[in-house]
Amino acid sequence: MNTPDGFNSTFDSRQFRNALGMFATGVAVVACVADDGTPLASTVSSFNSVSLDPPLVLFSLANSALSLKSWLNTPHYTVSLLHTDQADLSNRFAKAGSDKWQGVRPVRGPSTGLPLLPNALAWFECAAYGQHDGGDHTIMVGRVLSFRTRQLSDDQPLVFYKGRYRRLAQEAEPVAADDGLYLHAW
Q1: What PANTHER family does this protein map onto (predicted)?
Q2: Are 102 and 56 in contact (CB under 8 A)?
Q3: CATH number at residue 81
Q4: Closest by Cα among 123, 112, 126 to 83
Q5: How many CA atoms are closer than 13 Å to the CA of 136, on its beta-carbon side?
Q6: Nearest partner of 133 among 143, 124, 145, 141, judged by Cα
Q7: Could you say which of 46, 113, 125, 128 has the lowest number of CB atoms within 10 Å?
Q8: How many domains, the chain?
Q9: Rounded to whole angstroms, how far apart are CA atoms 70 and 31?
Q10: How confident is the model at residue 186 (pLDDT cuts 50, 70, 90)?
């Protein structure tokens, strides 16, 4: 087996971040309500499935986030997976500040009553299940209490790749995975 040239064993944070940016991700907004009743939200690209049984998902938050303490104490939160036309919402909730919800009319989750972004591709209501050290981030694992997906023919996810929003190419005919082929060994 040949070893490719150019591997970095010294970690320049920018180069490492650029390498991680080669993995295309969807974009989600996570939301909760702080103890004082303030609705909080943050854009994440770290949303992931963890388990089908029990139904678990995860995302991570920077330990430097001003609202991290509230997130660590919340018993419930929501996840809204963004549609390709929701880059403005992604930008809004990616910034620090207290006026993120101004002008946004959230829908309320039926299980928790917490805010969800309107017109998202999918919504998840979660109970806090676990928190794990992730270096300069905290990994938040949630048990899914309820979920809903939008089923429109033009549904396309907001994709983040190489530090920019992207769109999926339109296919003439979608390619289905083999029935026996599952990601994550499902």
Answers
A1: FLAVIN REDUCTASE (PTHR30466), FLAVIN-DEPENDENT MONOOXYGENASE, REDUCTASE SUBUNIT HSAB (PTHR30466:SF11)
A2: no
A3: 2.30.110.10
A4: 123
A5: 3
A6: 141
A7: 113
A8: 1
A9: 11
A10: very low
